[in-house]
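Sequence in, structure out. Go.
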Amino acid sequence: MSVKSLSYDENFNPLNVAKDLVLEGAFSWTLITIDENTKKLLMNKLRWDSAFTDDILEEQRPNIITEGVNNIIVLSFPIKDKEMLQITFVLVKNHIITITNKDSKVLEGLFETLHSKKVRASGITNIFSIILDNLIERSIQYVHNIEEKLDEEGKHVNIEKMNVKNVFEETSNMKENLFLISRIVRSDTEVISDILANKVPNINLRYFGEHVEDRLLYMIDYIDFLKESVHNDINTHLALLENRLNEQIYKLTIIGSLLIVPTIIAGFFGMNVNLPLIGFWEIIGITIASSLVIWLFIRKT
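Output:
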């Protein structure tokens, strides 16, 4: 099981890292990745009952839960297409525990940075704010990558070589992904707003950055812009397809017009009745001449 704890002394300096859930020092941060042993660990260390632990570990929308003197904050962040990283922040007195539903390179890297570079922190609120800053900026970068992908697709649209099925699959997936991210970020923003309204006693707003909410609101606006861009991109592809269809219909119309007179002549002279005696090559000449006249008329008009 992946469990690491970083304790701090009273002077805000990081101490050693322990591979266990340790609630020692002036304050601490414990990073836990969920596996089959997580439930047992939390029940033993935090004295949670089985039902409550199951509720905390299951997937859920961002929200705030109060359990005795403990505050539990659930947030989610996009990490890849249609996949979210759910983080449960457990605030136990002067200790913060982050429980993730999957491995997070962002949290792992941040944990190692705080420890290896001896980064000072003023308490669990400061650590909580640092974690949010990193996750939100990474999420904004992820959304920015979606915009770059959208721009790249727009630059290389080839009406002749465009694969209709692939184009609409990609744009539909992108649109669905943006709607999912938007829903999650809006829920995260509601939770942060509640924190700023002082609804989480264990959070000291003096050390909590108000810019966190601003960055989330910026990401919401950014996502709304991209959703509109994807919608416009779909309309552009539809217009290109319609244009290609019109060109094909136009070509078929020309071919059909050129074949009308030859078809009439062939049908006329193919009847089993007495007709004016005209030679084969004369008939061919009349056919070619009439088709040429029709082609010139179409070209002129």
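Check: The domain at 3-242 is CATH 3.30.460.20 (Beta Polymerase; domain 2). The mean pLDDT is 84.
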